[in-house]
TrEMBL record:
Protein name per UniProt: Nuclear transport factor 2 family protein
Regions that span the bilayer: none
Location of the SnoaL-like domain: 5-134
Pfam annotation, one family: SnoaL_4
InterPro entries: NTF2-like_dom_sf, SnoaL-like
Taxonomy, superkingdom: Bacteria
Cited Gene3D superfamilies: 3.10.450.50
Amino acid sequence: MTLDDLLAREAIRDTMAQYTTAGDRLKIDDFVACFTEDAVMESEHVPADRAFRYEGRAAIRAWQERWLAGEGGTHGASFVRHHLSTAKIDLTGPDSARARTYWVAWTDIGPDHAGYYLDSFRKVADRWLIAHRRVRMDWEADNSLFRSAVANSR
């Protein structure tokens, strides 16, 4: 592993942290800045009524704006904290990488839902950005505060 490899992996981890903290705090500009212009963000392994797919920064921004505005009802949590744990990052080229990262979301009820991200990253200028994020959910609490919120924000 080279110094450039280490720097790339740390830059990717920084993007993941920015995504998580910006998303939890609904800091839309910071959230959208984590993605390439042509990024895709989609769900997998979720019930059909909660599936989503957004293509491009503009669509991702519009989705976050709906969350912030509370359109269709939001989750009702007084706080949301997505915690990232294991992140397996594979550099696939000088400007490309893949990652698999486990996450769990905490809300007022404690552990609310959990899963993992399957990501493709692309280096754009001096930043590593998410080009494609697949959000997979493995588990959710019976009283998850997010159960209806995702469907309501589409």
